[in-house]
Design brief:
single chain, globular, 186 residues, 6 helices, mainly alpha, 82% helix
Length: 186
């Protein structure tokens, strides 16, 4: 597979990470350097790690993973989105009261939800008998960069429009989950 093909796959896989980063940083207002690093690093790491898992799983579990990956992604994004909306409505006076999506279980859940499609890409790479390490490096770097761009852009929007924009962020997360689910069900 050519470098351009792998790069396009990496960009495609990273669009969910970009959108989630945008929504997360809207809720945060102006993310700190630590928050930017944590989300970018974890999204890049998970985007790189999931294809490796898929690649190792290979043909033996491909049918089973494809049957439920979209439900897992939808469930995780729905839960995080609802949490973001309720926290934003409940604590709209100060952005600092809203949960930090770059910490704890929220960070892990978002990382898994945005990278679960990469698992299927890893399975595809195994079926094509491709080497995994070069594409994984590209996928991880692209995901990290696009997450950082999404965080910076969302941070500016959040600072400009205030903490109530967290509702929009939660709706975006739910929308991404619904899109993942409907793409797999159709």
């Amino acid at each position: 597979m050519s470098f351009l093909s792998v790069l396009l796959i990496a960009v495609g896989l990273s669009m969910d990470a970009f959108a989630v980063a945008l929504a997360s940083s809207i809720a945060l207002g102006r993310p700190t350097g630590h928050q930017l690093f944590r989300l970018s690093f974890h999204f890049g790491l998970f985007q790189a790690f999931m294809p490796v898992i898929g690649w190792f799983a290979g043909r033996t579990v491909a049918v089973y993973v494809q049957a439920w990956d979209h439900w897992v992604a939808f469930g995780l994004l729905l839960a995080i989105g609802v949490k973001a909306i309720t926290e934003s409505l409940r604590f709209h006076e100060t952005a600092s009261r809203c949960g930090d999506p770059t910490k704890g279980l929220s960070l892990v859940a978002l990382s898994v939800a945005t990278s679960i499609d990469a698992l299927a890409v890893g399975l595809s790479f195994a079926m094509l008998e491709m080497q995994i390490w070069w594409p994984v490096l590209i996928i991880g770097i692209v995901a990290g960069i696009l997450t950082l761009v999404g965080m910076r852009l969302g941070g500016r929007l959040g600072a400009k429009f205030g903490g109530r924009v967290g509702v929009l962020g939660g709706l975006i997360l739910i929308g991404i989950g619904a899109r993942i689910l409907f793409q797999h069900l159709i």
